[in-house]
Amino acid sequence: MPPRGNSVALVLSGGGARAAYQVGLLRYLRRTFPDFRFQIICGTSAGAINAVYLASHGGSMADACSGLAELWTELTFDRVFRVDLRALSTSVVRWGTRLLSGGAAIAPRIQGMLDTSPLRQLLSSAMATVSGELVGIAENIEQGRLAALALSTLNYATGQTVTWIQGRDIETWDRPQRRSARARIGVEHVMASAALPILFPAVRIGSSWYGDGGVRLLAPLSPAIHLGADRILAVTTRYRRSFSEADQPVIRGYPPPAQVIGTVLNAVFLDQVEQDAQGLKRINRLLAKLPPEQRDALRPIDLLILQPSEDLGKLAAGYQEALPSGLGFMTRGLGSHETRSADLLSLLLFHPDYLQKLIAIRERDAEAAHERLAELLG
């Protein structure tokens, strides 16, 4: 076994703007465990942004957490995607023309509802890059500050989940629907992992087009386990509802498109962590009953999942009027104002007040889980 703490992995899931919630944990760790450093970092979807920032930062983990918190607290809509009326109108016209033409050859090719070029520029300026590569990752690996980084994406051509890995002494893995590939991870890998389907355009890496890594990622904890972690700290933005809350409807009458899309995206991006955790716990219980010589290559994994104490979707519903005019018009057209749980809206709500509130909630939640965190981190 490696020294306690050296094999702890940080797993960051997706959720669009809700990934700001993860920063609250990092800010708490900076204050409470300033010398601790994660050796394995795994990110998916918007969590990939946080993962690469930590993995590529040249300073201490405390400095990296501080810089990431500053980045999120200053984030606005126009630094993630174009929100001007002209850009949104052009996108709507292209989609409409494509649909009405029945896919005729003369119809314009559409690559996402929103133009995310501002996010690409932000990532390139916020982290050191050379020809698009995040050079700080290789430097941290060489200096022993990082063992491995993993980012998951979806290959639209094959339907496979591809996890890009960079690290030292690592082995790849292959499954029918998910595989790994070594890479010098760069901005394009991050953009691909965070490319929300339909909303954000797919990203070309090599000869294939890739999208959000949360789609079809049935085992979100597996990259950390393959990379050698025996302790995992996973952060999800999925609110765990009580039985009474789960039975409460958030709409009246026929569900608007915003409610349908939000429910589907929650199932795609957020439910898998809990399901994967249940399977991991069952394996742990089985291994506990076996002597070490009968466990083959399996090992028990200590897992801690941190979830928000408040429903981030319901919290987003109060910010409908804060949206830029063009984006607000589009989301209202989908019926976002007809539901009390604005899950779709929360993915796109890059509003400073909302983001800072998410960070504060996570920091408070982390403090409540201090004893368990201290035990896991050693």
Any overview of this molecule?
By secondary structure, this protein is of the alpha/beta class. 43% of the residues lie in helices and 14% in strands. It contains 16 helices and 11 strands. Strands 1, 2, 5, 6, 7, 8, 9, 10 and 11 form a 9-stranded mixed beta sheet that branches. The chain has a two-stranded antiparallel sheet with strand order 3-4. Strand 5 and strand 6 form a beta hairpin. Helix 1 runs antiparallel to helix 3 and helix 1 crosses helix 15. It is globular, with a radius of gyration of 20 Å.
Briefly characterize the structure.
With 378 residues, the protein is an alpha/beta fold. Helices cover 43% and strands 14% of the residues.
Residue share in helix: 40-55%
Total number of helical segments? 16
Cα separation of the termini:
14 Å
Relative strand content: 5-15%
SSE string: EHEHHHHEEHEEEHEEHEHHHEHHHHH
The Rg value, from CA coordinates, equals: 20 Å
Number of strands: 11
| Shape, principal axes of CA atoms | globular
Q: In terms of structural class, how would the helical and strand content be classed?
A: alpha/beta
Low-confidence blocks of residues: 1-5
Mean pLDDT: 87
Largest sheet: 9 strands, mixed
